[in-house]
Specification:
With 399 residues, this protein is of the alpha+beta class. The protein has 18 helices and eleven strands.
């Protein structure tokens, strides 16, 4: 493959164009990321799906750290960062299997459906709060607080702590400096330690109390695993949904014919959420993996000991899998998209994200028939994160 292709910051600001260019060169391409790390990026749909389920492509954080050091990258991970990152998304079987089993029941479609009345109530309260405004930034006004309130209530985080938690999470998922990352992680770590101690002393009817009970009854969840699990569920439980809601609204406001079709037939909404996930999902590059042995991808072979990043955005715009992939079509059958990943690390919170997005979009479109974008699309900026694909702001006109 020769020298890696150098990627610039437009990887974040124009990921669909960059992914399309990479895919023209093949389903997997060796690249140098904007901050210097050399990785293989997989952009083909079939190849991405295969890599996400391939046991030869692993997530062992200890081995990944050694590879970082091999490539001359010093770790920004202090004890708090490492502790928060030791969760099931960064683990392989058998640890992953054991950890996932503990939370699967909390996020089944049947269990999540019981949350519908509360999600609808929170949605209505937030829409009431902005109902008299002519213009708002939809992110802080609606798209951010809805999923934060839902996941924090589900796990048992106090209402007054939710905004601070969101700020720490944003810093940890962005391309922050090592100092910023460590400071946010330290605050998050201290908060979660205190919250776990509180729930252990006074259990409540929430998911975190349930995980503590499972741990205390010998269900092989250590104190460190409990902390990391709480962090993962809280962050993943709202970050992806925030961006799903906002990205979906932007997509509709940029395509008036699709917005009109959805308004004319609200029954399309459930299927449309799948198309929003495919068209402009909330995750760009799936969390980092490495090859334990040589792995063929298309007509190339990724050697052992190489970093691999799967572009979920790129795979979902692969014309070999989805016809006319760059066109938003709320009537399309988008089944099989990879927005939530694939294989053993498929997003455990997918049913909750789907439900929240459907309720949020339905409420927003019903409440504001004249909803429109209040900025030129090209002026909007995407967050400085290779993981989450989300807007910095979303200015809208409500009437």
């Amino acid at each position: 493959m020769g020298e890696p292709k150098n990627l610039a910051e437009d990887l974040l600001q124009d990921p669909h164009r960059v992914s399309a260019l990479l895919r023209e060169e093949g389903p997997a391409r060796k690249v140098r990321m904007p901050r210097g790390l050399v990785v293989w990026i997989v952009t083909g749909y079939a190849e991405a799906r295969a890599i996400l389920a391939d046991p030869r492509v692993a997530k062992d954080p200890v081995a990944i750290q050694r590879l970082f050091e091999r490539d001359g990258f010093e770790s920004a991970a202090d004890s708090a960062v490492r502790a928060l990152g030791a969760h099931m998304l960064n683990s392989d079987p058998p640890d992953h299997t054991r950890l996932r089993k503990l939370v699967n029941q909390a996020f089944t479609s049947r269990t999540v459906s019981r949350l519908r009345p509360r999600i609808e109530q929170i949605t209505a309260e937030l829409l009431d709060g902005i109902g008299d405004a002519e213009r708002v930034d939809l992110l802080p006004a609606f798209a951010v607080p809805l999923p934060i309130r839902v996941i924090c209530e589900l796990l048992g985080v106090h209402a007054g702590d939710q905004s601070a938690f969101a700020s720490w999470s944003n810093t940890m998922l962005a391309w922050s400096t090592p100092e910023e990352l460590q400071a946010a992680a330290a605050k998050m770590h201290a908060y979660l330690v205190g919250l776990i101690e509180e729930k252990r002393a006074e259990p409540a009817d929430d998911l975190l109390s349930g995980l503590i009970l499972a741990s205390d009854e010998g269900d092989s969840l250590s104190a460190d695993e409990l902390l990391a699990m709480a962090f993962l569920l809280l962050v993943a439980g709202f970050e992806t949904t925030v961006n799903l809601i906002a990205n979906s609204v932007l997509a509709l406001l940029r395509e008036p014919d699709q917005l009109a079709a959805l308004r004319a037939d609200p029954a399309l909404l459930s299927g449309a959420v799948e198309e929003f996930l495919r068209y402009d999902g909330a995750v760009h590059l799936a969390t980092i993996r490495f090859t334990k042995e040589a792995v063929p991808v298309g007509d190339v072979e990724i050697p052992a000991g190489e970093f691999v990043l799967v572009s979920l955005l790129g795979a979902n715009r692969d014309g070999g899998r989805f016809e006319d992939p760059h066109r938003l079509d709320v009537k399309r059958s988008a089944a099989g998209h990879l927005a939530f990943g694939h294989g053993i690390h498929y997003c455990v919170g997918a049913p909750l994200a789907r439900l929240e997005a459907e309720i949020a979009l339905r409420g927003l479109l019903e409440r504001f028939p004249a909803l429109g974008l209040d900025a030129e699309p090209e002026t909007l900026r995407w967050r400085e994160s290779a993981l989450v694909h989300g807007l910095e702001t979303l200015p809208v006109r409500l009437r």
